[in-house]
Predict the 3D structure of the following.
Amino acid sequence: MTLQRILLVSGIALAATACGKVGDLEPRTGNALPPKAYGQTTDQKAGMLTTPSAQARPGRSDELLKRSERRADDPFDIAPGEQPQPLNAEGQVPAAKTDPE
């Protein structure tokens, strides 16, 4: 009995969803379209509104790395519990000790 009810309800729901109007929306008879937005000069379609501009999606740069360079030491990259190194007289961080490889 419950299977028949489920099939009946799903059949009614399927029939109700299949009877939609396909086409452009138009105002009811006797009503006018709303005024255009300020600055709108042409009829804008959905494709025009959803296509990103060049500023929103800039071109891709495929510049390859020309040469490898060693990174400068980062004074803020310290292990937990260590104290940061003080600056020397020139305002530079002293060179870090390099581990022999």
Remarks:
- The helical segments are 2-17, 46-50.
